[in-house]
Amino acid sequence: MIARVLVTGANGMLASDLINHLASQPGYEIVGLARQQMDITRRHEVAEALTRIKPNYVIHTAAQTNVDYCETHINEAFQINGYGTENVAFYAERVGAKLVYISSCGLFGDKVTSYAEYDPVVLKTVYARSKYFGEEKTREWSERYFIVRPGWLFGGGKTHPKNFVYNRYKEALSCPVMYSTSDKFGCPTYTRHLAKKIVSLLQTEYYGTYHITNSGSASRFDYVKKIIDEFGVKTTLLPVDSNRFKRAAPVPDCEILDNMFLSMSGLSLLPDWREAIDEYIQRLKRDM
Ligand SMILES: NC(=O)c1ccc[n+]([C@@H]2O[C@H](COP(=O)([O-])OP(=O)(O)OC[C@H]3O[C@@H](n4cnc5c(N)ncnc54)[C@H](OP(=O)(O)O)[C@@H]3O)[C@@H](O)[C@H]2O)c1
């Protein structure tokens, strides 16, 4: 039997790897809808698309993902990440689809250890508040949902404007000295690894909220250093305090997630983030 999967925000970084991964698997028909085809803030567009497509699964990746932009565009952040998610959750439920809502690792605070799924949220930014509001709407409307909180995402094609890994490589080529913060911590996470895990999770009935990241953790400095070393670019990378970079959003110090429910569900954890960077950079080098 063929399962129909609808992916929202289809031009995004995670969405493109999800669509590629699903296309390589037997038994799936994929419908990726970009903003131009279904703007999630327009209730009638979501109603029309889901009723027409009748998906078995909806993977909802669409979001306003610019954390600093959200800080000064509060209504827009809540319209897309909150009410847009409500529209998707409502109509997914109405057509009987299982729903995956991609949330965020930025829902916590500043303790530099890690956060598990049971930890209370500490919503420091507008982006975090709007994504958590999206979680609340998912829980309110959907019976069969997976809320997935990923780590710091990297992946997708090198022309994607948000390609963190490739952008650091380009910066390293042109800058003899680079700076990166050593006081912000998270779990770099490869979209291709995450995509595979989401598809495995979909096949279960283990509904609920999951932290899903590559294993291990890093400071931004460790992350950028690994990228530069792997590309073999000769530049000097210096660790700096985050105060050096003025940002509109007060992002938390710690976005390290403990993947407790994933291991409790008997699903394997993702590989170490350094291995994931190696794999992704090899993929980029093949395309260069
Ligand atoms: N990137 C990270 O490090 C990270 C970390 C944790 C969680 N996440 C979450 O993971 C998901 C995927 O992230 P990503 O980095 O792959 O995002 P992305 O590349 O920024 O893609 C998001 C997509 O959503 C689309 N979109 C925005 N507003 C929309 C609307 N009103 N209707 C329909 N589509 C809309 C965007 O389209 P336009 O290009 O037209 O704006 C874009 O293609 C997001 O939910 C994000 O919050 C990301």
Description:
- The protein has helices at residues 13-23, 43-53, 67-72, 74-94, 126-141, 164-174, 191-202, 220-231, 260-264, 273-286, and strands at 3-8, 28-33, 57-60, 98-102, 145-150, 152-154, 177-181, 185-186, 188-190, 208-212, 214-215, 218-219, 236-240, 254-255, 270-272.
- The protein has 288 residues and is an alpha/beta fold.
- The strands form 5 sheets. A 6-stranded parallel sheet has the order 2-1-3-4-5-10, with helices on both faces.
- The structure holds NADP nicotinamide-adenine-dinucleotide phosphate.
- Residues 8-9, 11-14, 35, 39-41, 61-65, 80, 84, 102, 104-105, 131, 150, 152-153, 162 line the site of NADP nicotinamide-adenine-dinucleotide phosphate.
Summarize the structure.
Helix content is 41%, strand content 20%.
Reported CATH architecture: 3-Layer(aba) Sandwich
Can you tell me the number of structural domains? 1
Distance from first to last alpha carbon = 39 Å
Helix content, binned percent: 40-55%
The CATH topology is what?
A: Rossmann fold
Number of helices: 10
Mean pLDDT: 96
Strand content: 15-25%
Class per helix and strand makeup: alpha/beta
Low-confidence stretches: none
Question: What is the H level of CATH, i.e. the homologous superfamily?
Answer: NAD(P)-binding Rossmann-like Domain
Radius of gyration: 18 Å
H and E string: EHEHEHHEHEEHEEEHEEEHEEHEH
Q: Mind telling me the CATH class?
A: Alpha Beta
Which molecules are bound in this entry? NADP nicotinamide-adenine-dinucleotide phosphate
Number of β-strand runs: 15
Largest sheet, strands/sense/barrel: 6 strands, parallel
Overall shape: it is globular
- Strand arrangement in the largest pleated sheet: 2-1-3-4-5-10
